[in-house]
Design a protein that fits this description.
199 residues; globular; six-stranded mixed β-sheet; alpha/beta; Rossmann fold
Length: 199
């Protein structure tokens, strides 16, 4: 066993118009804003010098472009399981608009009509998890907010609903690894934004 345990780095895409406005952006292929592009490059600075056995990205341009701007465009492999939560009929809506129609609605409990439930997203996250764990090397993943939150809960062996407690900012970097051995998955760090503070 290596003394250094494998780490999976997860990067959320840079800012988009909808991440700014708080609209649910699922499978809608929204581009990065100018700030989103600059922050994706800064994310690259935080990753500089690290070597990854594999780099995976969602096919959605906000994730893929973040990956490219961060400097991993030549290494990236597209994984369709990394797309954001499918919000179905709630695509493009704000939480307030959804709750006006459906009081008390909770994404992680209730899911989205015509889209996915937390369990559905958990199944996709579980597939990614198995592929990544088999590699037993440092990996880098670019994806979207709610998918990555669910992925983290799967990593830890928690329910997808627990993802609600993991906040994740645009252009953030997080890392999942293990404590002591591969039987004890743990969070190494979460929602790190220090690379965005140095302009």
């Amino acid at each position: 066993m290596d003394s250094v345990l494998p780490t999976v780095y997860i990067a959320r895409h840079g800012e988009t118009a909808w991440s700014l406005s708080g609209q649910h952006a699922g499978l809608r292929d929204i581009p990065l804003t100018g700030d989103g592009q600059r922050n994706a490059q800064r994310l690259g600075n935080a990753l500089r010098g690290r070597v990854f056995a594999k780099v995976f990205s969602s096919p959605l341009q906000r994730a893929l472009k973040t990956c490219q701007l961060a400097g991993f465009g030549t290494q990236v492999e597209i994984d369709r399981d990394l797309v954001e939560w499918n919000y179905g009929e709630y695509e493009g809506l704000h939480n307030e608009e959804i709750r006006a129609k459906r009081p008390g609605w909770d994404l992680f409990r209730d899911g989205c009509p015509g889209g996915e439930s937390a369990q559905d997203v958990g199944l996709r996250a579980g597939r990614v998890l198995r592929r990544v764990r088999e590699l037993r090397q440092d990996i880098l993943i670019f994806s979207s907010c709610d998918f990555l939150r669910v992925f983290a809960t799967c990593w830890l062996g928690l329910t997808p609903q627990s993802a609600q407690r993991f906040l994740l900012s645009t252009a953030s970097l997080s890392a999942l690894s293990y404590e002591e051995d591969l039987d004890h998955p743990a969070i190494k760090f979460w929602n790190d934004l220090h690379h965005l503070m140095h302009h």
